[in-house]
Design brief:
The protein has 95 residues and is mostly helical. It has 4 helices and no strands. The protein has helices spanning 2-25, 34-43, 45-66, 71-94.
C-alpha cells in the first residue's frame, strides 16, 4: 500500500508540474502560490518547477521511508491534496 501511494504521490507531483507549466502559458493565468511565484521570478518557470517538484518528490520519499505507521496517512494526504491541485490546473487549462 505504501509503495502504491508513493508512486501515485510522485506521479501527481509530475502531473502538477506539467499542468502548471501549460496553465501558466495561457494568457491571464498566474500562479496562486506566492512562494512559487517568487521562485519563478528568480529561476524562471521551468527551473522553478523542477526545483519545487523535486522537493515535493523528496518529501514524498521521506514520508514513505521514515513515516513508520503514519506513512500511509501522510502519503494519502499528499495524494488527495495534489489530486485537487491537478484538477484545478486542468480546469484552468480548459478556460
Amino acid at each position: 500500500m505504501k509503495e502504491m501511494l508513493l508512486g501515485l504521490a510522485i506521479a501527481l507531483q509530475i502531473g502538477d508540474g506539467v499542468t502548471t507549466f501549460f496553465a501558466l502559458k495561457k494568457r491571464g493565468v498566474r500562479e496562486r502560490n506566492t512562494l512559487l511565484r517568487w521562485l519563478f521570478g528568480r529561476l524562471g518557470v521551468v527551473r522553478g518547477l523542477v526545483l519545487a517538484k523535486s522537493f515535493g518528490a523528496a518529501v514524498c520519499w521521506v514520508a514513505y521511508a521514515y513515516g513508520g505507521p503514519f506513512a500511509v496517512y501522510a502519503l494519502g494526504f499528499i495524494v488527495v491534496l495534489y489530486t485537487l491541485v491537478v484538477v484545478i490546473n486542468l480546469k484552468s487549462l480548459r478556460r
